[in-house]
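To illustrate the input format used throughout this study, we show a single complete record. The first block contains the structure-token representation of the backbone; no residue identities are included at this stage. The design step must infer an amino acid for every position from geometry alone.
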């Protein structure tokens, strides 16, 4: 504990913006939760619009960040089933692309 009277407030804010279990920032948690909702059919409409409306980022940025999160062990702590499923899909696509290049 610090002698600075305001330091506890800063610690509280940092804790609020991260998942206590995984340590992921709130933005990454929201992204993973959106993808999980989408995968389970809990969201309707155009995915790009949903991404923009809920996360205020572009669809390409969303997919870039999601791809990075698949390699982050904290993401697997937060949403293990989702992350493992998406890792499998990513690997299958990479394998298929490699096979296509050989022919």
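Output of the design step:
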């Amino acid at each position: 504990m610090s002698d600075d009277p305001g330091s506890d407030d800063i610690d509280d804010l940092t804790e609020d913006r991260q998942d206590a279990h995984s340590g992921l920032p709130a933005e990454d948690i929201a992204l993973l939760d959106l993808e999980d909702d989408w995968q389970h059919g809990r969201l309707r409409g155009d995915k790009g619009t949903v991404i923009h409306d809920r996360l205020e980022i572009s669809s390409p940025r969303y997919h870039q960040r999601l791809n990075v999160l698949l390699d982050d062990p904290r993401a697997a702590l937060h949403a293990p089933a989702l992350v493992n499923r998406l890792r499998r899909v990513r690997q299958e696509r990479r394998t298929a692309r490699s096979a296509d290049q050989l022919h």
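Structural context for interpreting the output: The chain has one domain: 20-102. Residues 20-102 form one domain.
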